[in-house]
Give the backbone structure.
Amino acid sequence: MKYPAPLPGNPRQFTIDQHVFPTESLNRFADKEGFLKVRRTGQGHTFRLRPTDGMFCAKRAWDERSEKHLMKQIEGRFQQIADSVLSGRRSLGSRAAFRVG
């Protein structure tokens, strides 16, 4: 689905660059200087990018309501689970841990 361009100056503050991978997740793989080492398929070299780089984004791939509400809830819950796993938790418990809303 293609979305119309926002009004000049983006007065409704639509999110234009939507991260395909959550920035918080990408930050976990960044080096001490805050860069990720990236290698594109088919290219023989690697390069460094910040987790906020546009390469990790899509231009308005989904609607604003999904971006600011549904995706934010899902990502928030996912980050809680990821933090639990990274802190050494061995079990995520019941399926209720995965509910959003």
Remarks:
- Helices lie at 23-27, 64-86.
